[in-house]
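Notes, p. 3: input format for complexes.
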Amino acid sequence: MERLKVLVTRRWPAEVEARLANAFDVTLNESDTPLSAAELATAMADYDVLCPTVSDRIDAAVINGGGRVRLIANYGVGFDHIDLEAARSKGIAVTNTPGVLTDATADIALTLILMAARRAGEGERELRAGKWSGWRPTHLIGSALKGKVLGCVGFGRIGIATARRAHHGFGMKIAYYGRRPCDAAVAAELQAEFCPDLNGLLGKADFVSLHVPGGGDTANLIDAAAIAAMKPGSYLINTARGGVVDHDALAAALQSGHLAGAGLDVYPAEPAVPPALLGIENVVLLPHLGSANAETRAAMGMCALANVEAFARGTDLPNRVA
Ligand code: DGY
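Output follows (322 residues plus (2R)-2,3-dihydroxypropanoic acid):
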């Protein structure tokens, strides 16, 4: 196996770092802070393999600034932060880590659904601020989940895993919007209704959960018009990518009461959070925790490592996206 020179842009779980360092000539970004565009471009010129994460913007300027990198092995499933066209034009292969973070991300979608529906964030903030005056029948009343419609926008691995939890665990009804109907066995298992029209889904869902990839095709998919098409008193949940949602329109809909609540794990320009949301009570704001459990982060690392190893052996890359 070729002993490649590899740059890892952020710290990885210790066991994966150890395996990687055993097999390759690895440089770790010990500071665990984002590298600048200039540092990334320099890395493209100095290393054979770059292992970035969602917090690194690998755009055309970074890619064209290099000349040595032959593989970008992303630590994560989403790759909208990497310019695939630019990579292809330079003959650089790109891989991701699909499958291993499906359950963790679906768990966070359910966390957000439950927290938004049951006003858990509001309650915790009230209690910590010493403002809780005790139990009363009308205090922080939320919404039940049983019998409510979960509308998934996108019904790939993570959308289906979220729907399974909501349907089997909480008695929710499932509807989904996607390019085509899902597998018949999944549709039967979840009694899932296919909505070929996005507004049709938005008008019937009590909870809308986003499971589409980020990037140009889905930018602002949930814009002011889409939010207006959502059922009054419904909730918006986003564990996909921040750029899918118009956050000014979302803030206005939360403040006007058109939406009862929202739960967000992702933002358009992380780590910045759209300021309009910070002062709003009925939105749950998490810091991109979708895949953040020990087992999943280790599995993501092992998956990225498998791609680097395959590249070093000259065999087919298990998770090639470009
Ligand atoms: C991904 O993998 O794309 C997530 O957003 C980060 O876990």
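The mean pLDDT is 98.
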